[in-house]
């Protein structure tokens, strides 16, 4: 007898693991509504979250749940034994990343598979981040400078609940133990009365992007990029097709993140409790765990906007725990490269990951060199202000640039294996490499000669933006 998951997989054409994933994210909504009705102390809340989260992981991965249970056990042991030692972070980091990479080694294939390593990579960041936060807290206390962001070592039940939070255990987003602690204590409840309505907005957005992705893949598929028919297209149409394909592919990630965010909102986890002055925020803002800034993403005019808007919480994590921790290198470019290398190896061993993040570095560096040259030229800016048609042409040109070349850069990330992405890049004549490598070497000097800096120009717009390119504006510590 065909079970419901297999029936849905057969009807939709998706794999059974993908159906389980979607069902689990959706199941977090009614579980979150039940949580809101709980009457009891923090122990009951921890228990409810832990049990439901464990059941979701077991539903998806069966006996492979032992991998995450072992990670929690090791993390609890490290926190208990090494909590006041300088070894806490290196031991936790080495164990969790090492275990994940061994898992990749034994489970990886030529395609993107939904296996136990997918939620495990989410778990790894969560538990490593906890080790960093505990170490930072003990250091502040030792220096006699404790503050409101210092956290105690969680109990085993707290750690299980934090790790297996039902709305985020499979696909994220990342959040800190401090946020979880404040949430479960009830500190956010006065500000989350309207959470169901906000969650419904995220749910509908997620459904919309999921539908667009499913319909779009019928017209712009992975298989076509590898086909002989694609090779026969003109060079221009190949690039246009890659841009459309890349956009539709990104919608797959956006849809699942929006659905997961909506579930987290239902619980009341996502309230932003920054102190006034730390950032601009609405009193009852509920976007504290947002993983995608839809408005920024849909209005991109440069590659940096993708970095700013996409996978926000992971980028924030990397900015806080990798990029900023590499300041001892005393070189922002090296810190940036180190952060992107961490992201690549965190994804796995496929060459495509490393090429995509290397391309990100190359494009971001080119844009940071080129953008100020345009913005500092007063004559050009005045011309744009006075000529609506020219502004419209620039807008169209920038949209073409961001959509087409984002798709180009995404090819290795999706196709993973060298022989696949290399074949596609051969078909399009390695155009992106020529553009971005040549742009880094020649474009800025050429533009400086053609568009000299105006003598009266002020400070470079956006000069305060974080130079890493990992997550502009995302180095704010999660509350």
From TrEMBL:
Keywords: Acyltransferase, Endoplasmic reticulum, Lipid biosynthesis, Lipid metabolism, Membrane, Phospholipid biosynthesis, Phospholipid metabolism, Transferase, Transmembrane, Transmembrane helix. GO terms for cellular component: endoplasmic reticulum; membrane. Residues 453-467 have a biased composition (Polar residues). It is a multi-pass membrane protein. The lineage of its organism: Eukaryota, Metazoa, Ecdysozoa, Arthropoda, Hexapoda. Its main location: endoplasmic reticulum. It comes from Anopheles dirus. The keyword Zinc does not apply. It holds the Pfam family MBOAT. Its EC number is 2.3.1.23, 2.3.1.n6. InterPro entries: LPLAT_7/PORCN-like (IPR049941), MBOAT_fam (IPR004299). The chain crosses the membrane at residues 18-35, 42-59, 87-105, 250-269, 334-355, 392-418, 430-451. This is Lysophospholipid acyltransferase 5. It is found in: Endoplasmic reticulum; Membrane. Belongs to the membrane-bound acyltransferase family. One of its GO terms (molecular function) is 1-acylglycerophosphocholine O-acyltransferase activity.
């Amino acid at each position: 007898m065909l079970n419901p998951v297999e029936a849905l997989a057969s009807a939709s054409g998706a794999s059974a693991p993908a159906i389980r994933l979607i069902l689990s994210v959706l199941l977090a909504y009614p579980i979150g509504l039940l949580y809101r009705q709980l009457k009891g102390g923090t122990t009951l809340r921890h228990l409810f979250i832990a049990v439901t989260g464990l059941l979701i992981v077991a539903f998806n991965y069966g006996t492979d749940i032992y991998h995450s249970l072992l990670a929690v056990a090791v993390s609890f042991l490290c926190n208990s034994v090494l909590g006041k030692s300088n070894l806490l972070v290196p031991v936790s980091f080495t164990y969790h990343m090492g275990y994940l990479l061994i898992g990749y080694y034994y489970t990886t294939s030529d395609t993107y598979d939904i296996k136990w390593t997918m939620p495990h990579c989410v778990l790894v960041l969560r538990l490593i981040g906890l080790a960093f936060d505990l170490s930072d807290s003990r250091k502040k206390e030792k220096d006699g400078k404790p503050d409101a962001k210092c956290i105690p070592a969680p109990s085993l039940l707290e750690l299980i609940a934090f790790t297996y939070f039902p709305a985020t255990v499979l696909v994220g987003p990342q959040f800190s133990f401090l946020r979880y602690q404040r949430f479960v204590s009830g500190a956010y409840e006065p500000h989350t009365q309207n959470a169901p309505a906000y969650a419904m907005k995220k749910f509908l957005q997620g459904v919309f992007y999921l539908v667009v992705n499913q319909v779009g893949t019928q017209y712009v598929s992975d298989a076509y990029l590898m086909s002989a028919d694609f090779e026969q297209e003109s060079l221009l149409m190949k690039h246009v097709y890659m841009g459309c394909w890349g956009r539709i592919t990104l919608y797959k990630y956006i849809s699942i993140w929006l659905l997961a965010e909506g579930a987290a909102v239902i619980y009341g986890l996502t309230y932003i409790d920054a102190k006034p002055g730390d950032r601009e925020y609405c009193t009852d803002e509920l976007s504290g765990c947002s993983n995608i800034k839809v408005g920024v993403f849909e209005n991109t005019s440069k590659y940096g906007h993708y970095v700013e808007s996409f996978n926000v919480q992971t980028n924030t994590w990397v900015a806080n725990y990798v990029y900023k921790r590499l300041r001892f290198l005393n070189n922002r470019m090296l810190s940036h490269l180190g952060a992107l290398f961490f992201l690549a190896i965190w994804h796995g061993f496929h060459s495509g990951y490393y090429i995509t993040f290397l391309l990100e570095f190359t494009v971001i560096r080119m844009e940071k060199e080129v953008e100020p040259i345009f913005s500092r030229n007063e004559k050009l800016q005045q011309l744009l202000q006075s000529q609506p048609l020219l502004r419209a042409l620039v807008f169209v040109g920038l949209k073409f640039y961001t959509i087409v070349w984002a798709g180009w850069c995404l090819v290795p990330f999706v196709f993973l294996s060298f022989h696949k992405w290399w074949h596609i890049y051969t078909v399009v004549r390695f155009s992106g490499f020529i553009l971005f490598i040549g742009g880094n070497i020649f474009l800025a000097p050429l533009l400086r000669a053609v568009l000299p800096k105006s003598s009266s120009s002020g400070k470079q717009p956006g000069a305060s933006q974080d130079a890493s390119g990992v997550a502009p504006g995302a180095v704010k510590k999660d509350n």
